[in-house]
Design a protein that fits this description.
Blueprint (H helix, E strand, L loop, with lengths): L4 H10 L5 E3 L2 E3 L4 H4 L5 H12 L4 H20 L10 E2 H16 L8 H4 L10 H16 L5 E2 L5 E2 L1 H5 L8 E3 L6 E3 L9
Parallel strand pairs: 1-3
Antiparallel strand pairs: 1-2, 4-5, 6-7
InterPro entries: KPBA/B_C, PHK_A/B_su
Subcellular location: Cell membrane
Organism: Caenorhabditis bovis
């Protein structure tokens, strides 16, 4: 396992309200987070037990790689959280393989062998590339953002970003283009 792997899975679980599905087994956010601690061996054993159900070591490696990529994305983007849906690792791997299969004109979507053999090839055609694309697609499709960052680099709540300057709400435009301020400062706090 990669260094800090279980700690990173814990981080994913903290930001995934409906849990993580690994090999058709749900790891729920609650009671997992309330019954265990980040560094507890019981948590590590629970993840190991879920991964050990997978008979193909190549697929198990893809799952570890996928979870590591998700953790990296979450570490670098604190505004992302998965509150609308669970993280289905198997579905993400299938999506990644489907992207690869479409690019390579592979018709058999049940045999992942060509996908397993991508390691060691160019970065643009590695499994990490396709897994990352599948994750980003999932994030964008599910709108898993807790805040919106506008084009001027200012952090704004979703409601403020969606308000129009001509709306008859309590919002008015500041002199800074692209920035909306509220007369009620409490409603502008980033959650």
């Amino acid at each position: 396992m990669p260094v800090n792997f279980y700690d990173r899975v814990w981080t994913i679980l903290e930001r995934s309200k409906h849990g993580i599905t690994i090999a058709d087994t749900l790891l729920p956010q609650e009671p997992t987070l309330s019954d265990m601690t980040r560094y507890e061996l019981t948590f590590s054993h629970k993840i190991e037990a879920m991964l050990s159900r997978i008979s193909h070591p190549e697929y198990r490696q893809l799952l570890v790689e996928l979870l590591s990529i998700i953790a990296t994305i979450l570490e670098r983007n604190p505004e992302i959280s998965f509150n609308g849906s669970k993280i289905d690792c198997d579905a993400l791997i299938k999506t990644a393989f489907k992207m690869y299969a479409e690019e390579q004109n592979i018709e058999d979507l049940t045999n992942l062998t060509p996908f397993y053999q991508l390691e060691g090839q160019a970065l643009s055609t590695s499994t990490a590339t396709y897994l990352t694309r599948a994750i980003v697609e999932f994030i964008l499709a599910g709108r898993h953002f807790s805040q919106v960052i506008n084009i001027f680099g200012e952090q704004t709540s979703r409601e403020d970003a969606l308000a129009t300057p001509h709306s008859k709400s309590k919002h008015h435009r500041d002199r800074t283009p692209g920035r909306i301020e509220s007369k009620n400062e409490e409603s502008c706090k980033i959650q």
